[in-house]
Amino acid sequence: MRALLRLSGLIDALNERVGRLAMWLVLAAVVVSAGNAVFRKALNMSSNAWLEIQWYMFAAIFLFGAGYTLKHNGHVRIDILYGRLAARTRAWVDLVGGLLFLLPTALLIAWLGWTGFAESYAIGETSPDAGGLLRWPVRLAIPLGFGLLALQGISETIKRAAFLAGKAPLADEAPEETV
């Protein structure tokens, strides 16, 4: 179990770093968006590439932030039910949900996304719009993002299993909100 918990720690560290980098993409997207608006309005200049890079960054923010969000227990769930459950029951719900739903779905999308990326890269797919960008970089973000989400799902599964086995505390539980 120690080796699995070390692996979980490495996955957590990876998704923490990637998630923090994704946060900087928000600032970059705002700067690009504002710059594009200024050029379009003040100088009557516009480019499809600027619009597409905003779209690429928006996709990257969500795809690369998904594992980080899971690590920090930030994904949406039905808290009125889940929050009332005992810690062990919540751990079982997370464990079963991760194994039956999260991991198969994330791995399937990562695999299918890799196929889409490989085809796009092989043909040198570009945007059909004038001045558009290559499409393979954003297509690569799909399997990478879902791969990171699957890795975090594995980490969360390890942590829940260790908690249920009495080998580790469940330290990442969200704190109770006070009203």
Automatic annotation (TrEMBL):
Native organism: Parasulfuritortus cantonensis
Cell compartment(s), UniProt: Cell inner membrane
A Pfam cross-reference name: DctQ
Topology of the protein relative to the lipid bilayer: Multi-pass membrane protein
Gene Ontology MF terms in the entry: transmembrane transporter activity
Top-level division of the source organism's lineage: Bacteria
Entry similarity comment: Belongs to the TRAP transporter small permease family.
Ranges for domain Tripartite ATP-independent periplasmic transporters DctQ component: 31-160
Subunit description: The complex comprises the extracytoplasmic solute receptor protein and the two transmembrane proteins.
CC annotations in GO: plasma membrane
Keywords annotated in UniProt: Cell inner membrane, Cell membrane, Membrane, Transmembrane, Transmembrane helix, Transport
Function: Part of the tripartite ATP-independent periplasmic (TRAP) transport system.
Main localization category: membrane
Protein name in the entry: TRAP transporter small permease protein
InterPro entries on file: DctQ, TRAP_DctQ
Membrane-spanning intervals of the chain: 21-39, 53-70, 91-114, 134-151
